[in-house]
Automatic annotation (TrEMBL):
It comes from Ensifer adhaerens. This is EAL domain-containing protein. Keywords: Plasmid. Residues 24-273 form the EAL domain. The chain holds residues 281 to 558 of 558 of the full protein. The lineage of its organism: Bacteria, Pseudomonadati, Pseudomonadota, Alphaproteobacteria, Hyphomicrobiales.
Length: 278
């Protein structure tokens, strides 16, 4: 793999670059059989109403590669999308998360992320309706998280899809708010129940007045539009206290609870109900 640079010299890939490319190719190949080899799992991260009331969990997919170890979704989801594998993986996550949530106390919700490709694929509302039906999960216990990027294309269809989900009683959250286009027209036109403020604005909340101003404004904006607001990436007690004081409805982040496997939820719930009585 040699390429001439501007001055006519042959430029070769460095060895480490080659290794990175080979690793990516290796990963892409093994992604194809990962589902049938049962290499995916889901971790659940608590969503908390301040101060200590757990309202549900967000499902976060994990890929446990037999040689490489656990690979984060930000790495493998783009690969899966490029190879047309994300639909199948997403369908598995949806069904598994609904099945899991059906075993929880009935006031807990489960939030499932949908990538743009999953959201835009034909038949989404049917697949969702079928998944909650199969699991025996009440529609209002499922939340779907989408990012603004899904709203950029095919706008009328997107609106139809969101409206249908809304009519079914499913909750819809706008994830990572503030990082993308953040066009306010989305908020005007699409029926979101919740806005999730990206952790980019939360991480320096205690020291940065600009972040404070932005977060305060997003909370006011959401509430003015009748939407709930969740802060992502809450890592410190200082952030949690500030957000509670400013009226943020829900908190999510390592301070409230790390993502955990399904079988750790019981112990987490017992621990946190003990904490709440302190
Ligand atoms: P997201 O939906 O915004 O999820 C929140 C991410 O922030 C998760 O990363 C979570 O582990 C991480 N996080 C939570 N609390 C904290 C905190 O206090 N500090 C910091 N630094 N990070 C925190 P994760 O699990 O690596 O997922 C990354 C992204 O991958 C997700 O972002 C979501 O967009 C996507 N994703 C995860 N699971 C799925 C899935 O099943 N389907 C689809 N389509 N996308 C998924
Ligand atoms: Mg999310
Ligand atoms: Mg997010
Ligand atoms: Mg985020």
């Amino acid at each position: 793999a040699a390429k001439k640079d501007g001055r006519g010299r042959a430029k070769t890939f460095s060895r480490s670059m080659l290794i990175v490319l080979e690793q990516r190719e290796m990963l892409r190949r093994s992604l194809r059989t990962a589902l049938q080899d049962k290499q995916f799992s889901i971790e659940y991260q608590p969503l908390v109403e301040p101060p200590f009331s757990i309202v549900g969990f967000e499902a976060l997919v994990r890929w446990h590669h037999p040689l490489v170890g656990t690979i984060p979704p930000n790495v493998f989801i783009p690969m899966a999308e490029a190879d047309g594998l994300m639909n199948e993986i997403g369908q598995w996550v949806l069904e598994e998360a609904c099945r899991q949530a059906a075993t929880w106390p009935s006031h807990f919700t489960v939030a499932v992320n949908l990538s743009p490709a999953e959201f835009l694929r034909e038949g989404l509302t049917d697949r969702i309706a079928q998944a909650i039906d199969m699991a025996g999960l009440r529609a209002d216990r499922l939340e779907l998280e989408v990012t603004e990027s899904v709203l950029l294309e095919r706008t009328t269809n997107n609106l139809d899809t969101l409206n249908t989900l809304n009519v079914l009683g499913i909750q819809i959250s706008l994830d990572d708010f503030g990082t993308f286009y953040s066009s306010l027209s989305y908020l005007k036109n699409f029926p979101f129940d919740t806005i999730k403020i990206d952790r980019y604005f939360i991480k320096d909340l205690e020291s940065d007045e600009k972040s404070q101003t932005i977060v305060r404004s997003i909370i006011a904006l959401a509430h003015g539009l009748g939407m709930r607001v969740t802060a992502e990436g809450v890592e410190t007690i200082g952030q949690a206290v500030w957000l509670r004081k400013e009226g943020c409805d829900r908190l999510q982040g390592y301070f409230l609870g790390m993502p955990m496997p399904a079988d750790a939820i019981g112990a987490y719930l017992r621990r946190s109900s003990a904490m709440a009585t302190l």
